[in-house]
Amino acid sequence: MDQMTVTKPMDNFTLCPKFEQTFSILGKKWNGLIIEVLLNEGTLRFKDLVVNVPKCSDRVLVERLKELEQDGIVARNTYDKSTKVDYSLTNKGLELRPVMDAVHSWGDKWFG
Q1: Is residue 12 part of a domain?
Q2: How far apart are the C-alpha atoms of 72 and 93, rounded to whole Å?
Q3: How many domains does the chain have?
Q4: Does 46 map to a domain?
Q5: What is the SS3 assignment for 9?
Q6: In this structure, what CATH number is given to the domain that contains residue 57?
Q7: Is 94 contained in some domain?
Q8: pLDDT for 80-94, tens place per residue?
Q9: Model pTM greater than 0.90?
Q10: Alpha carbon of 112 to those of 52, 58, 76, 99, 102: distances in Å?
Q11: Which of 16, 44, 73, 100 is a plausible cystine mate for 68, CB 3.0–4.6 Å?
């Protein structure tokens, strides 16, 4: 009969808080796709994001955009004397390009 292996926590291991914070952002449903769309398409209006992130409800998309804006990854751009609003990546968001490229490479290798 097989013995069940019990894994005990590693005594000296702790996750880096910055690593945890990064994955709390990137690991949240839809955030990666929103970032990827903005990396590839550039500045977009909300209606264009809706088209490019089709399975995400409008309510959730608004919520995610607000969160990404609070995290300094997305900028919500408004224009004087206009109701026009669009969204773009900040420099912080643009610096995610190599991360997203690495995710693509990994996915191509293991799921392609």
Answers
A1: no
A2: 7
A3: 1
A4: yes
A5: coil
A6: 1.10.10.10
A7: yes
A8: 888 999 999 999 999
A9: no
A10: 22, 30, 35, 18, 14
A11: 73
